[in-house]
């Protein structure tokens, strides 16, 4: 056999992979049915398959081999995975499934106290490129945290160089088996499809394509929750085809598609996009609803026949595939049309997004007209009659149909013409993105433009397009403004928001509801850019417009009051008027059924009260937010649990430690139940528990909570949430400082140096004071001074009217002065801290008294304050919950 050139191997390898994925007795049929253009490789493939079989018989896979892409010098034998075997930190339990290149095993850590089963993805052999492939899958999965997507826990390379990927182990059945076992009806199956669509839309919004949607990758738990699996051949929408290593990785291994679920463009070898996932979803829906493959006749013949069918054959509608009469009736019409639209051969004819497809499914369930069907007035009238058949009497329906048809038809026609013009303008705009020169035969090589690029192009074009269709343009400005903001395109988002305001001014006038809506549409941009003055002025203008128009929509009014109060509290030190606006927003939202912005309003009230130094009012606002979430969302909702954890912090700062323990523990229990053991918000709760344990004098338990908080914050999926990670690190410094673990404090402060940068002012001060204490202890007084000066600058800017926020800085400054022998100045600083009557700084006050006692500088006034503090702490929780500050005050 002559040596294969790189170009030859590029053509042969995908065919070899496909053959190796088959059982040995099926490979000959695969070779016999190769397409004519690939028959030239038949003899080569036959020899390669024979060589592979001979190597396997000789035990080749048990020999050591170098793993390309592993750590330098690593080597790995081709694995023969067995139960009980250790791979990195994992012990294998049983094989869950296997594909052409990898198998998935149920596994658990082989050591340590933290035991949790995972689904461990492992290669069949140390093939070239596997490490890069798993790294790509890890990086894509790290972006995704959704109830409908199996979570990524960890990834790595074992000591012998083998890559592995640890994912959530989902207990359940694939979607087809689950429905067959339950004999699910059509509505339940549509409900499952909606869950899949929502998960895919979330992935697409994070610029991740799945590319391998099929029943085996859609698991359903016993409770009916769908979990999407296996992003092994997924890719990023944010990268062009040649820029993300896709071609190289494809050459290194599996062909990126499952033939039965592959879109026509994938079969042709074109770069897939969102439209390909929509198509694969359509095949899944066809199988789930119709009970067969849309290409059932071609699938058994050969891969070549199946691919030809995908490219050329229009499958029958799902209702024609089922033998059940009742199911056929349920599918006929809307569901047939929805699935057919998803399976359109041309990507442009499919649904543009999974959201659009899901919206049509929801319209069908609600009895509304679906967009996949022609918008005739007869169809829409029929849907309306069916939807209201129990509310409208038979005689009324007869009159409506026989007498009112003409008027209804005329009105429907007018609305249809208006909607058609708008839809036509939207269509022209969309097609113009792919064919800007309006050529008769446009270049369609890039028909599947990555979503980020498509949105960016669309945003730039809409700024100067559709001037003659202002309503369509107005809607595009709203939608593209939101999308560009979510995709991190702030300049474009700002231009779109400003253009929306400009267009609303021209179309509707500056006293219109649309203009006020457009002004408030800039709220997130103002806040993220720190443009609080503009936000406050525009929010005030919007509120005035609503009031002049007699606006009755509580959601609109609440948003305006929320913006006025929220921006006011940031523009200046919070004043009563800011809090009044926020309270008005709460009053508007409180009576409304269902979830709304009420929890957000109470969060803003907490911030406003804290800005005033009113810790008790902040706590009370937080408790009202907890109660609102319990009523609106239920006691088991994750947002309710998160609010409990947040208020637990305030309970701790207002000397309610028992309540803090109950709230935080219950909140963490709810979060784990609702979102699993690794959601990033749990890191904050574990940090809160660490501070509670420190207050109780349980140093070892505090360190254990810090370790768990760090574990969660450092998971690949959570590392981008830097605020949580910084909170955990600040807590770790607090625990080390309060327990006298100077080595841990030194290690924690080492990377900060003299310049601490953190997003939240209070967080910066926590880190600055802790590292200043470490610098004083180490004798590095210059660094300590620099950190203290930075802390005072932050306090002067953000907490000038809240001296309690500066107490820890004064405490550390006293230590800095004492280190220079300036004892009287140091004592003055400590007395300043001790004299602050604020329960939120009880630890700092207790430390100040201990420093004064050690310096023999306690006077009668200071002794009296200490006695009152002891009584206060005894009443709040005593030795059981507040042992550490009580020991400092008593000298224990």
UniProtKB/TrEMBL annotation:
Pfam families: Pkinase (PF00069). It comes from the Bacteria. Keywords: ATP-binding, Kinase, Nucleotide-binding, Transferase. This is Protein kinase. The keyword Lipid metabolism does not apply. It comes from Pelomonas margarita. Residues 90-365 form the Protein kinase domain. The lineage of its organism: Bacteria, Pseudomonadati, Pseudomonadota, Betaproteobacteria, Burkholderiales. The keyword RNA-binding does not apply. GO terms for molecular function: kinase activity.
